[in-house]
Structure formats: C-alpha cells, structure tokens
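name: query_chain
kind: protein
chains: 1
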Amino acid sequence: MLREHRFALWGALAWFFVLEALLVGAILFWPSFEDNIDALRDMAPMESLKGMIDQLEAGGIVAYVNGQHFFKGCNSVGALAAVVFAMGVVAGEAQRGTLEILLARPMSRRRVLSERWIVGALAVALPVYASTHTIPWLLGFIDEDMAHWPLFLSATHQSLFLLALYSATFALSCASSRPMAIGFGMLLFFLAEFSIYLVQTLTHWSVFRLTDIDAFARIMAQHALDPWITLGLVATTAACFELSQHLYARRTP
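structure:
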C-alpha cells in the first residue's frame, strides 16, 4: 500500500472514531439537555448562543442532532480533517524533496493528481456518511428516532461542504512547498469564519451559514437538498480541482 494511501486510511479511521465518539456522547446527553435547557440558556454568554439553544428546544431531537453532529462535530473536526488530508499532497512532497520522483512517474500528471484527490476526498467524506448512518441506532438507546433518508441527504450536504474546503486546500498545496503554512493559514481562516458566525451583524458573511442548524432543518423538512447551495458547492469543488490540475501541470521540482 502506498504511503499516501496508508495515511488516508488511518486518518479516515481516526476522523471517524472522533466523530462517532462525539456523536455517542451528544446523543446520550440529550435527556439531561432536555431537562436542563432553561439553565443552559441562562448560562450562555452570548445572545447568538442563547438563540441556538432556543432553536434546539423548538426543534427537539432533530435540531439537537443537527447541531451536535453536523454543525459542531462535522464542521469543526471535519474542517481540520479536510485541511490535513489536502495540505501535504504536493507541498509535502516538495518539502521532503520527493516531488521530482512524483513528477517522474510513468503516468500523466492529471491521472496522478486525480488519484491523490480521490483518495483524500474519500477519507474526508466516508466518515461523515458512516457516522451519520449510526444515528438511528444510537437514538434507540434513548427512545428516539430519525428517518434514514433525511439523514443521508444531510450527510451529503455536509460532505459537499467539506469537499469544497478540501479542494481549496488541495489547490494551495499544488502551488506551495510549505504544508504547515497552508494548514496554519486555513485553520486560522476557519477560526475567523466560525467566530464571525457568532456575531449577529457579521454572521451572514460566514461560510458556516451554509451548514448551520437552519440549513439542516430545511433539508430535514423538505427531504431534499437546496439546489442552489448544492450547485455552488459542487462548482467550487470542480473549480478548485481544475485549478489544482493547472498548477500541478506547470509544477517543477
């Protein structure tokens, strides 16, 4: 097995187990959360957080799962996973001095880069689907239930969002020789975006508005993806992928 395949495999397993552990803890905490929601609202330090708690109370277990699994778990840990899987794909080879070997492979550069993109994309997306698939089973322990199809659609929406982040980082890796700088810069960007999400006057400028509790509530209610958001995420991913191919085609050791 190639080194990058081993990294993607073990990284995906670690990403899945972290996500699943967060999900198990959140679901088992639901009865306590439901009983103490007024006290939690009083302790919230910001109006935006109080508003999120109100959303969870109004939406019940569905809003709670959306908030805990997708908005909190998949967005926070998933953004980190997307960056880690993409930042070293080419920049890491350049830093290690092995880029010349990669470029000399007896295959087209487009094929080599496409294979690397697919391996990382699967490592980003599959844990989202796998962990989401366990939600109905976990809810059985607290006498709650959710339908599989809306959860599958929500996992698809979340995966498309993470793949857009992954593809943007992937393109940066194709242009750089410093993977740690890419990773640090992208994580600072995500931290800033999440921070402005919590500011009422700036929240609509945050990319995390695309995957907040309201976004998943609409998917659950309509049993369908938002076509415009889906198209935008797919277009962003495709554009970043083609930019990566252009940059890699012109890359020299």
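note: The chain has eleven helices and no strands.
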